[in-house]
Amino acid sequence: MSTLELVTVALARQPQEKARVAAFLESHQLGMDEDVTHVVIALAQGGIAGCAGLAGNVIKGVAVDERWRGENLSARLLVEVENLAMSLGHFHLFLCTRPYHLERFRRCGFWPLAQCDDIAALLENTPSGIRRYCQQLGRLKQPGERIGAVVMNANPFTLGHRFLAEQAARESDWLHLFVVREEASFFPYRERLAMVRAGVAHLPNVTVHEGSAYLISRATFPGYFLKERGLVDKAWSGLDLQIFRRYIAPALGITQRFVGSEPFCPVTRAYNQAMHAWLERVPMSAAPVGVIEIPRLSHAAGEAISASEVRRLLRAQRFASIRERVPESTWTLLAQRYCAEVA
């Protein structure tokens, strides 16, 4: 075997390398997610022998040419990409892969969190990450027999979101509201979190939780190793809901999860269906969590209120229509952000 050289590529500064890495991954039946910012490449005689990508705190696109398998190259790539992540300020790392690769990544210092059938498995680079997170959640546990949960993106927070929170709070002794933490949305995470906090401030039995890596966003789910969109969605929902039922719900004593009905988006509608399966019916050691679907709040014209419609209206600068669909707290934030247009 020839000598290997490991190099780190920042794709924004070396865009020509992106196509080269993408072609290598494609030859191994893998895709390249758009959020990958850096790639560690193993070069042998000018060609790519292996690579490992990084998107924030998620390792993606780990592949080794078959001629180099058995040479411990995967481990070397993972060590290098972990060092890269730490240099960028990411210490808690995640990796998603096919279940038949689990043992390979275990040997490299990753611990399984959840597995969705034979489709996908999620791992993290610490044996205590999820335990520490649950301990933090446990300090916010509230007494009661009916402990509810809502998970929302709130992009932005609409009257529909407020209606869902109000209905869930009414049917719960205490409600835990989680805001998905990712920056792939139209509105930045901090703005969405502020909207939610302001929008439910009138509800005395609600705790608003900042999102975490254990609430998996569909927008940032590492589905590069799954070619079919249906499999990506199935893996995302299965892993996300297992983590919720196995870890998050017991930590807070959650007995029921509320969700709005979904008349528009087929992906969200499929997620709601998966919620019934994974939280209520699939056998596992954790207790079932009841799923309660709340019918969507409708606009005066009879249309269900949706965040996607508000974003469309915002792009069209139809501010009067937006104001009819969002609470005053959201409108205030929008007016501050788009003050010139609103004025």
UniProtKB/TrEMBL annotation:
SUPFAM superfamilies: Acyl-CoA N-acyltransferases (Nat) (SSF55729), Nucleotidylyl transferase (SSF52374). Residues 1-128 form the N-acetyltransferase domain. Pfam families: Citrate_ly_lig. Keywords: ATP-binding, Ligase, Nucleotide-binding. One of its GO terms (molecular function) is [citrate (pro-3S)-lyase] ligase activity. InterPro entries: Acyl_CoA_acyltransferase (IPR016181), Citrate_lyase_ligase (IPR005216), Citrate_lyase_ligase_C (IPR013166), Cyt_trans-like (IPR004821), GNAT_dom (IPR000182), Rossmann-like_a/b/a_fold (IPR014729). It is an enzyme of class 6 (ligase). Its EC number is 6.2.1.22. PANTHER family: [CITRATE [PRO-3S]-LYASE] LIGASE (PTHR40599). Acetylation of prosthetic group (2-(5''-phosphoribosyl)-3'-dephosphocoenzyme-A) of the gamma subunit of citrate lyase. This is [Citrate [pro-3S]-lyase] ligase. It comes from Cronobacter dublinensis.
